[in-house]
Specification:
This protein is mostly helical. It has two domains: 60 residues, no CATH class; 74 residues. It has eight helices and no strands. The protein starts with a helix and ends with a helix.
Length: 179
């Protein structure tokens, strides 16, 4: 092995051979270098084989290229898949489920709007009660409430909001009955 390395490097002089033979460290270094060269060549060969295998696998899995190369078998496979899917009845079941959901949507929306209106009305009523006179401890506050102060304005605004919400809910209810 050492002789092969010397022949490849072209320094096979007698003095060099004696130096290597007398020095085991130098002989080991030469052997390591030769092993490195063999390994790098082997690694390059493995990488080349793997890249060609990967490219081959990519070509086999490329559906677009396969359809371009074989359009008739691809059309037959698509037709068979469509017939198989149609035979399962999944499309009819999906259509029925969609129709049921579409029919029940207005009722569900109406119930949801009704619940939202009731919750809003209850909240507005509670807020109006709090602002309207539950704490009539001082005469200045009751005078401000009766003379259109901040509490009076807030109460009237809340009542207006409540009536607008009720009107909107009634309109939505009528629309859902019409459809």
């Amino acid at each position: 092995m050492i002789d092969e390395e010397r022949g490849a490097r072209g320094d096979g002089s007698a003095g060099e051979e004696r130096r290597i033979a007398g020095n085991p460290a130098a002989a080991a270094k030469l052997e390591i270098a030769a092993t490195r060269e063999r390994m790098s060549g082997t690694i390059a060969e493995i990488e080349q084989r793997m890249s060609s295998s990967i490219e081959s696998a990519k070509q086999k899995v490329d559906v677009i290229d396969m359809v371009k190369r074989h359009p008739w078998p691809a059309l037959a496979a698509a037709l068979a898949a469509g017939i198989a899917l149609g035979a399962t009845g999944a499309d009819r079941r999906a259509a029925r489920a969609t129709a049921r959901a579409a029919k029940s949507a207005p009722g569900a929306a109406k119930r949801g709007v009704g619940q939202a209106v009731e919750a809003t009305k209850a909240g507005v009523s509670q807020l109006a009660e709090r602002l309207g006179g539950s704490d009539e401890g001082s005469s200045a506050e009751s005078n401000a409430g009766s003379s259109g102060g901040l509490k009076g304005k807030a109460t009237s605004a809340l009542r207006a909001v409540g009536s607008e919400i009720q009107r909107g809910a009634d309109e939505l209810s009528e629309l859902s009955r019409a459809t």
